[in-house]
Amino acid sequence: RTWMALRERSSLDIPEHVAPLIAHVYDRETRDDISEPLRRRLAKTAADLQAERQSQEEQAIDRVLRRPDDDGRPWELMTEPRAEDRPEIPLALQALTRLTEPTVTVVCHYGDLSGAVLVGTERPVDLKTNPARHLRTIIEASVSLSHRGVFDALTKTPPPSAWKAHAMLRSLRPLQFSANNIAIVGNWSIRLDPELGICIERSAE
Questions:
Q1: Which residues pair with 109 in a beta bridge?
Q2: Quick check: 100 and 87 in contact, CB under 8 A?
Q3: Rounded CA gap, 143 and 104, in Å?
Q4: What SS3 class is residue 123?
Q5: What digits encode the pLDDT tens for the residues 97-151?
Q6: Which of 13, 16, 52, 190 is the most interior residue, by most CB within 10 Å?
């Protein structure tokens, strides 16, 4: 619908054209002057969207936390115990506040864990045996990644043993970068760019 709204325009005037364009894209009615293949495509995408919304509504019903004075059966809340801070468990078993792509939080550092230099710092710290001592610095050097290939590769690897015992660290994964700001995870190359931030592309290796 966005393409249909823009295909006959050579320019846009802001803000005059914004409201009509939004109305055109989100209007439920289908224009009469479109081809039959495009009409079928719009019907299919509309059906797919409706099916996705229905699925999301059903998930929301399953995951909702009811009010304390709700008349329902409170023991139903424990029929599927959830660990919302464990990204490696199936998405259907995670506790969620919104429906998004799965993410994994990584701690960016240079060097091995016993003498790691966290991104944005200069002094080596011990992340292998006593990570809780540097908790604030660890959190400041962490970032959430939603790339599916990177997510799958990282969540297959358990966190360091010392991290498992700490509630704020057990869901994180260390991500070691080389001197040229590159980290290889599975088939993916993760690059730290000073202007773009995290850049992910398929590894050439």
A1: 118, 176
A2: no
A3: 8
A4: coil
A5: 556 678 899 999 999 999 999 998 988 999 998 898 899 899 999 999 989 899 9
A6: 190
Q: How far is CA 80 from CA 62, 76, 134, 155, in A?
A: 10, 8, 34, 21
Encode pLDDT of 55-112 as tens digits. 877 777 666 666 666 665 555 554 544 455 555 555 555 555 556 678 899 999 999 9
Residue with tokens 């060097």: 111
In DSSP terms, which residues pair with 190 in a beta bridge?
183, 200
Q: Is the dihedral of CA 165, 84, 153, 182 positive or negative?
A: negative
Q: Which of 182, 198, 178, 186 is nearest to 117 (CA)?
A: 178
Task: Give the pair of three-digit tokens for residue 152.
Answer: 């799958």
